[in-house]
Amino acid sequence: MRRQPDALEQMDLPDCDPQLLERTYRQFWLVNRVVSGWRSLYRQRIRPLLPAGGPASILDIGCGGGDITTALARWAHADGLQVRVLGIDADERAYRYAAQHAGHRDLPAGALEFRQAYSHELLAEPGRFDVVVSNHLLHHLDGQQLQGLWQDSASLARHLALHADIRRSRLALALFGAGTLPLAGSSFIRRDGLASIRRSFSHVELARQLPAGWRAETAAPFRNLAVYQPEAPHEA
User: Fold this and answer.
1) pLDDT in tens, the chain (236 residues)
2) Which of 69, 93, 129, 174 lies 20 to 30 angstroms, CA to CA, from 231?
3) How many helices (H) and strands (E) are present in the chain, helices listed first?
4) Is the distance from CB of 187 to CB of 23 less than 8 angstroms?
5) Residues of the signal sequence (predicted)?
């Protein structure tokens, strides 16, 4: 199955239907809960790197509607950790939705924050993040933008940069198409999700995009991981 990097996603269009876009942001949590695997990534990759006795921080680049950002903050808080999670997105529409709908009520002040920003803008600010992540961002970026993401992430991450995306396959396309039929027409989830799969990388293609110091891994179901660890992980 050949990659189609120019496959159109409606939600990327500046003049897309605002009601369908808002419903798409609202439905992200459901789709990501089923297919993204972030709960396991948090437990196995992120949680062991967060200090139990002091403050820590996580950066979510291209956070979209903020569901993964919020989940990371909630999981860390439930584990009794003092963690600040920052979600950034360059799209003003995504930032506005995330800032308005994020579930701050059960979280301490400062545990969850959203900003409209690019990752390179954070390089000029003091401080770095224990962990830098993104979800379903890589297939949206061209080669030059990907190189910028690798560089920004390596500069911003103290212990781990972890970018998760779809791993393209015909089976993933068929299963997602069938599984999201109930959402067809109610949002951009099904239409754009199918386009995202067509735009996404195979494992080999992603590995070819990565600079020295990074590695490409696979995870279930149909996931690619771009991983950078500037130092050996410490004990939790």
Assistant:
1) 999 999 999 999 999 999 999 999 999 999 998 889 999 999 999 999 999 888 999 999 999 999 999 999 999 999 999 999 999 999 999 999 999 987 666 888 889 999 999 999 999 999 899 999 999 999 999 999 999 999 999 999 999 999 999 999 999 999 999 999 999 999 999 999 999 999 999 999 999 999 999 999 999 889 999 999 996 444 33
2) 69
3) 9, 7
4) yes
5) none
